[in-house]
Specification:
Two copies of one chain form a homodimer. Chain A has helices spanning 3-12, 23-29, 34-47, 62-68, 72-92, 128-135, 139-146, 160-171, 212-233, and strands at 50-52, 58-60, 96-102, 105-112, 176-179, 187-193, 203-209. With 253 residues, the first copy, chain A, is of the alpha+beta class. Chain B binds a DNA duplex (30 and 30 nucleotides) through helix 3.
DNA sequence: GACCAGCTTTCATCCTGTGAAAGTGGGAGT
DNA sequence: ACTCCCACTTTCACAGGATGAAAGCTGGTC
């Protein structure tokens, strides 16, 4: 692994949302010897990617915020999606989320009425949005995910077979759903945004309800909202989906 | 300069808001030989900090967006500031901006009703918000800025003396103003958010108007809004301002 | 007062990043 | 059709920067 790779794994130590970490914790999470972690952390601080707090711990820095906010693919998605999310939240009265693929992770991109903040990671197999994105993943990666289905509630699907059948129906155009498979009391439905893009859908639009019936009732509205987003995403340029990165576990090409 | 430094200057090539750059442009902006730039860019792409587009050019990637969105100091500022900006925009009918220091740059953090997007850089000496932040900068850095005052309109203050006197009144508690000093037809007033923090104010709150009179009339509302933000920022923790980074051109310690 | 954890510094070793130079490929010009 | 040119990519011998074990700090705790 190169120097840069190490530095990135230092940053990735914060990816799960931990607001602040001490040096030792960073070193541990990124599997680096302490002096190495220290050197990297210092360079990151000098740049502004990390900040040192008065108690000696570190947190992600403002420079990272400024740069990250400029990422065109996500910015467009949020800017075009936001008004639609707002309306969908008002018409359904339910928390609304927009989720997308980030490398190999599934993350919340934006939300209205939900407690989940942008950047939160979602379990691929146990959320409706996760299933949508999973359905359109290239075979090899999808199989990777299906190989390790963690039980999160009594209702989580942990058998690859049934889940894969659900994914097939999603690809065929059915809305995705997850009935208390991630958290008890949360029933979600989700549909893809721009499902016919070459790279797969740009995002998944999802609502959460107390009951499955309530969630089902929202499906038409969610589907229409997703179409609206797809529509305003398409015309202004091909730069829709964030390019899938060619990562280590990637496919040929 | 270390490897990391080089990689950061590659990312910084996008800091001015350029949505996409070709390899050659990146190499030029970051003053790196082409093969070096290529190697760094590739590693950044593999991580997700950059993305390669179909035409071969690069843009900031989604991984950067996800990470950056987690930066605690900025997130808190935006989350607590947003409702106040909304209200201020409604009561004044004017575009509202929240700006802060990012390393050595002055950037827009959030806005309502303005065309300036978060991440946009502001000229320190020719905007009201810039003057507020400049006023509270440590002496050495302030002098650095005062030494190079670029003329942007016929009304831009390019003499250090008068500007420095304005900064003194701002430190004394007066609202900052800029009358068409950045762009013709734009008159701004600004006040600090949390001006008594150890590190200087967390941000500057500013409104823009067609006429100076209109801007002046808004001052009390802006000041009250800034107090509201300061108030909700303070209690929940000391993590208010983003730590000023110890950069190359920095002071002792 | 001794111990410990968490952090920082040092330094000899060596591996990784470096960039000049040469190679590739596609598009424009004639 | 041929050539030129530009943007990008690959190669490779070299050098300098990164490495991490070991040894010092510091402040808190028993």
């Amino acid at each position: 692994m190169s120097v840069l790779g190490r530095a990135f794994s230092v940053l990735d130590a914060f990816a799960d949302g931990t607001p602040s970490l001490r040096l030792t914790a960073i070193a541990e999470r990124s599997a680096l010897p302490l002096p190495t972690a220290l050197r990297l952390v210092r360079e990151l601080v000098a740049w502004g990617g990390l900040e040192r707090q008065s108690d000696g711990s570190y947190r992600l820095g403002s420079r990272l915020w400024t740069l990250g906010g400029q990422a065109p693919c996500r910015r467009r998605l949020v800017e075009t999606g936001r008004p639609v999310l707002d309306r969908l939240n008002r018409t359904t009265g339910l928390p609304v989320l927009l989720a997308a693929l980030d490398g190999i992770r599934f993350v919340v991109v934006d939300g209205v009425g939900s407690t989940l903040r942008p950047g939160t990671m979602l379990p691929p197999h146990a959320t409706a949005a996760g299933k949508v994105l999973l359905a359109y993943l290239p075979d090899s990666r999808r199989r990777q995910v299906l190989a390790d289905l963690v039980r999160l509630t009594p209702y989580t699907l942990t058998a690859p077979g049934p889940l894969d059948r659900q994914l097939a129906t999603i690809r065929a155009g059915a809305p995705a759903s997850a009935w208390e498979e991630w958290r008890l009391g949360e029933n979600e439905v989700a549909v893809p945004v721009d499902p016919f893009a070459a790279q797969g859908p740009a995002a998944a639009l999802t609502v959460t309800a107390r009951s499955a019936a309530q969630a089902r009732r929202a499906v038409p509205l969610v589907a229409r909202a997703a179409l609206t987003i797809s529509g305003s995403l398409r015309p202004a340029g091909q730069a829709t989906a964030c390019a899938a990165r060619a990562d280590a576990a990637g496919e040929p090409r």
